[in-house]
Amino acid sequence: MSVTAQEIISYLTAPAGALESRIDGIVTGSHDAVVRGIGVAFVASHEVVREAVRLGANLLITHEGAFYSHQEERGNDPEESVHSAKWNLIESENLVIYRFHDHPHSYRPDIITAGLLRALEWEGYEHKDLGTASVVRLPQSRKLTEIAEHVKQKLNLPYLRAVGDPEAFCRHIGIAVGYRGGGQHAIPLYEQEGLDLMIIGEGPEWETPEYVWDAAAQGRSRALLMLGHAASEEPGMKRISERLVSRFPGLPVHFIPTGSMIEIL
Sign of the C-alpha dihedral, residues 144, 149, 154, 157? Predict the structure, then answer.
């Protein structure tokens, strides 16, 4: 029995309810395309596109876009060489790319955050879903350095960026994935939820990091770990791939890791 791209999209979007999104949608290809295989990834990078094709997937579901803009403004400069090369690859392989961003964040709980909690093996601990963040209470306080090593091991990360006293003990931890690490969102959580530590994807570097730096200078036990945008959201996309395997057992489903795009030299 054949399955179309739209049938898969309808399954993915249903848990979020009647949500209107200017972000989510087909980027390339057709809703009516018959799906032979599915690739799931954080972002439709050139390497991810090539890997999806190699695996035989003709539907690629990604959290972030393919053309370097949150609004997916891909038609501004048709002469731009990098853009054109990627576009030509996608077109030549008849690849359908579906951007799946706002809907998964609108699941309750947010499946992207839930994926990170599971990857860290913290979903069994006492935790509270705040919609745009989660708060985890560890069974006992642990040093920031110990928590950082745990996070790096579970997420297979070569490094983390941190603010605060490495020897500070932390127990109440806020989790904010993606670009939710900005000051307006993250800073109030320290006070409202009594947080010792926030683990974020990313945000402006002079907002929450400066706040935590000042708190530490005042002798307050507050800390921050920055994973990077992709590292914070990839586990959620992996969880989505597993849901697809369960729902469409006759289709090959491949989770395609993006890997770290940013290195420290």
Answer: positive
Q: pLDDT (tens digit, 0 to 9) for every residue of the chain, 265 residues total?
A: 799 999 999 999 999 998 989 899 999 999 999 999 999 999 999 999 999 999 999 999 999 988 887 776 544 455 678 888 999 999 999 999 999 999 999 999 999 999 999 999 999 999 999 999 999 999 999 999 999 999 999 999 999 999 999 999 999 999 999 999 999 999 999 999 999 999 999 999 999 999 999 999 999 999 999 999 999 999 999 999 999 999 999 999 999 998 778 888 8
First and final CA of the chain: distance in angstroms? 51
Q: Is the dihedral of CA 124, 150, 238, 240 positive or negative?
A: positive
Axis-axis angle for helices 111-119, 229-247 (nearest 10): 100
Identify the CA nearest to 212 among candidates 200, 202, 228, 197: 197
Radius of gyration of the chain from its Cα atoms, rounded to whole angstroms: 19
Nearest to 227 by CA among 108, 120, 135: 120
